[in-house]
Amino acid sequence: MRITDHPILDFKKKRTRKVTIYYNGKPIEAYEGETIAAALHAAGVRTLNYSRIKKRARGLFCAIGKCSSCLMTVNGIPNVRTCITLVEDGMKIEENKPVLPPANSNGSKAKTVKGDIIVIGGGPAGLMAAISAHDAGAKVVLIDENPILGGQLVKQTHKFFGKREQFAGIRGIKIAQILEEEIRKRNIETFLETSAVGIFQEGNEKIVVGVRKEKELIEFRGKAIIVATGAMERAIPFENNDLPGIYGAGAIQTLMNTYGIKPGEKALIVGAGNVGLILAYQLLQAGVKVEAIVEAMPKIGGYFVHAAKVRRLGVPILTRHTILRAEGNGKVERAVIVEIDENWNPIPGTEKVLDVDLIAIAVGLRPSIELLQQAGCQIRYIRELGGHVAVRDEWMETTVRGIFVAGDTAGIEEATTAMLEGRIAGVAAALRLGIADESWVREITKTQKELEEFRSGPFGKHIVEGIKKLLEGS
């Protein structure tokens, strides 16, 4: 179901030209600018794929191209990530067929694109890194696998905290527009729908191998690389946790806030951190009833202001509770929740059955470090930063000289800190290459102080501890 009325977003303006796509031969109405998975959801199609062995139904989970749940065969090409592939008129979509497509026999070579600095990722960290590196004098090339710039910002309808210069009081969706406009004003060469699949060294050059629109091979050559590939949703183990209708929190925000598609009618949210709390009132804004939020910890993990708002809207937040299992025939129809003891064991007799068709998993993120790992960067597990991260210095440079990191790839935090880290990485890369003069060191020092201030509150304490471990090598 498409959302027509929303208190903040105007989807009528976003929906322009209608197109027709064909799902298993059946015509489906879609709109230019939306993804295949979004269009299928709007038409009521929740099952996008099936497991290879037991043929269990699979539905959308991450909506950012980082899992395999939405792989389908599109125009004869298998393994297409339908969550980040835009619809085209006449497009044919089928159940995924894991076979190799016909070989390209025209003998064409990879296209080459050159710059001083290649930025991988068009979210808040990558955008700010590209802007800052450009302003410091570098020729920047920006690539992102999504069809639009902004990363997680494009789905954030809440207003940001912090200082005015850090976009305080501005909604994430507006911040994405501001940063995209800054990229355009600077004429920064940008490649969308382009996935980075490897980083290699050749002499003094670093090469990012990219694939654009699933078919065009491009070599991006530069002297430095900034990896700002963000993070992906964590999953948790429970019975039937693969049923269609179980989504990562970000996927639900993408459907609702980017494409104006209602993900369900009644929801259970697992996790009462900031993401789970914000998601609750975003669901309510979209006309979805939130039956409950369950949180395994003894207290709420998010900001009090978010929790208070959700409770005022009538949503119960149940601490020391978790989901025991999902139930339904090929899709979510019910959820069984249970109270847990101090050892995280379910307490018999405390089970409750909730009639829901939507389960949101909001239990945190893990950094996307695969490219950094492949490039030979030293990786270390730092619990406070969300898991495995690349070892780096105070200028965001990894153990491989010329490869920098920023944002959730460097450790799970707020979008504000991602932008600040992106600024440091962009300027630092230009300095390391000898493009920027020494006066730009002051910009790094200033930004480091802003980061320190932002992390000085109680919610930043564990981040500070994690960064200390990373820098000290403990």
UniProtKB/TrEMBL annotation:
Pfam families: Fer2_4, Pyr_redox_2
GO MF annotation list: 2 iron, 2 sulfur cluster binding; sarcosine oxidase activity
Keywords from the named record: Oxidoreductase
Enzyme Commission code: 1.5.3.1
Domain 2Fe-2S ferredoxin-type: 17-99
Top-tier EC class: oxidoreductase
Protein name: Sarcosine oxidase subunit alpha
Lineage, broadest ranks: Archaea, Methanobacteriati, Methanobacteriota, Thermococci, Thermococcales
